[in-house]
Amino acid sequence: MVEPNIRAVPRRDDIQGLRAIGALLVAIYHIWIGRVSGGVDVFFIVSGYLLIGSLARQAEAGHHVDLVLFATKLARRLLPSSFLVVAVIAMSAPFWLPRMRWEAGIHQIAASSAYVENWFLATAAIDYLARDEVGSPVQHYWAMSAQVQCLLILAAGIAIFALIRRRPSRTDLLVFLTSVFALSLAYSIYSTSRNQAFAYYDTFARIWEFALGAIARLLLPGIILSPTLRTVGGWVGLAAILSCGILLEVSTVFPGYAALWPTLAAAAILVCGDGPPLRFGVARLLAARPLTWLGDISYCLYLWHWPILVFYLTYTYQTSAGPIEGSVVLLVSIVLSYLTTRIGEARFPRRKKDDRPLQTAFGAITALAVIAAGLFVWRVEAAQSMAEERLRVVDPEHYPGAAIKGLAAGSSEIPVHPGPMTARWDDADVYRDGCHQSLLGTALLSCSYGPRDASHILALVGGSHSVHWLPALQGVLQRYPEWKIVTYTKSSCVLSSEVSSDVPAYRDACTKWNELLMERLLTTRPDLIFTTSTRVVGGVEEVPAGYQRQWEKLAAAGIPIVAMRDTPWFGFDVPECVEINGRFSPKCTVERNSVLAPISPTRAVSFKKNLHFLDFSDYFCTAEICPAVIGNVQVYYDKHHVTATYMRTLSEELARQLAPLLCHAEPLARK
């Protein structure tokens, strides 16, 4: 995110150029490369250098650190442009954003307006089902939210420290800021190693970047570098910033120690650029008029480039922009940024008398009211559309689903069900009943479905791909009142002795959960266990060895197991594709041989005692393709989870194949 141009230090044109470089990196990487550049971290350093560094210098000089004035100035520079962009998005999005994204879009616009978007995304990062959601047009507001929070926390810290120390010396302030830097960096490294997706948006894992900028500002008077060191240091810093996004996968390793790369590089440029001009210094390049002009509009460029890009990609149903199209996106963003900056400067001139808290608060409340009104109208429309879809009569004649011949898509005269407003919520009951364990949880959560006094128990165990079979199993057991279903499920965690996850916290939680699960299963001895049998690993469908080891333990205890072949995984949001391109579009299908092995890998499993394999792949794929809509029914509610509506159409066939096990089962002795 771009620093909002508040400072109590003389203007340095090279800093404006550094902003321009950062803004261009962010935009270019988003538009053409599809990666994160590290430019946001550069802006965090600049903000800390100018804003927190200035507050620290005020405290050192014995001046009162006025938090209200600081917050007022910050608001007057950030909010007008920020709220304008949010308002435009809120008013226009219902006309171009797919309905699949409406609910998330409304929530994220509200979170961005309140400057808590980073925490919204952090929460979504640990919600397994939300992690596959497509980016919203305000997703980039996470950086501004984190920036404002970090600046206010540090400003409050300096104000409190100044009150305690009366007139703190530079050394006192350096000790304070260095302590904050060290604590936050240590937390950032630990948090990133345990749960990087959450840490990326965590305010407390980012504070050290702002503290580092302020430390650089306080150290400057005592740093005397030779012209040669300043020249070399500046160019090395620029080279490090430009190469960061190329050499590091920023979105998966930041903000731990890897974020020291761009932040130290930016600090080097700030330090080496301070002092008399150098003939060959990097500051000369950064102070060039084209870069300083871009630097002046860089804040608004950050605001505009992402929603313009999301609009283009959504409208064209593309995953990336080509050279020409991307150039148009960038050019439109620059033009809008220039106009927004000029409007902001004309409406909110930078005069001290305008830094009035009440006037600023009134303006902010008015802007929020406009945004809230837009969201309210949008929410009413969304609620009406959702109600229409939920009231739709779904009968076997019009919605045969898996029963239709040849897995045909159905008739264009009959709307697809579930529709775009309800597809995300057409899932299994365990999610609403609160008995599906989260990514980080370890306790065995369980729900029971069926008669309480049922003599037989079917245990549904595993991850979300086991869960989506629950609606089909519920339909099956309606035919067998002596059976009930007991669930033991957890996000991204299958029944396996070997847990694979890139996130240590998730891996540890799944390992512990599996230990508790096996203990429970061997103790309670259900009459039948239902789980998944295969998984795609490295593009190859297989039966992991960890699955087989758990099956062997259960089978040795005399517990029968039904292992279902896994359903296909698509590489895109399936219902959104259907909404945009239609049920008959080949864009919404995948080739069968790209998601399923030609022969089920379960055939290679050697032991068969108490183990029964099922394969329903032919109800999800023809010989050539795996369609998105079958018999007028939406098959998936995201990239790979099957809708409850489609699963119910499989109940009859599943009942037929399970009949030998359900009809002749004898209750097992339970402890």
Map the helices and strands:
Layout: H1 13-33, H2 39-60, H3 67-96, H4 102-113, H5 117-125, H6 141-165, H7 170-199, H8 207-219, H9 227-247, H10 250-253, H11 260-272, H12 282-286, H13 289-296, H14 298-316, H15 323-347, H16 357-390, H17 429-433, E1 436-437, E2 448-449, E3 456-462, H18 464-467, H19 470-477, E4 483-490, H20 504-524, E5 528-532, E6 535-537, E7 540-542, H21 545-556, E8 561-564, H22 574-581, E9 590-591, H23 592-595, E10 611-614, E11 625-626, E12 629-630, E13 633-634, H24 644-648, H25 651-663
Parallel strand pairs: 1-4, 3-4, 3-5, 5-8, 8-10
Antiparallel strand pairs: 2-4, 6-7, 9-11, 12-13
Describe this structure in words.
It contains 25 helices and 13 strands. It is of the alpha/beta class. Strands 1, 2, 3, 4, 5, 8 and 10 form a seven-stranded mixed beta sheet that branches. A hairpin with a 2-residue loop joins strand 12 (629-630) and strand 13.
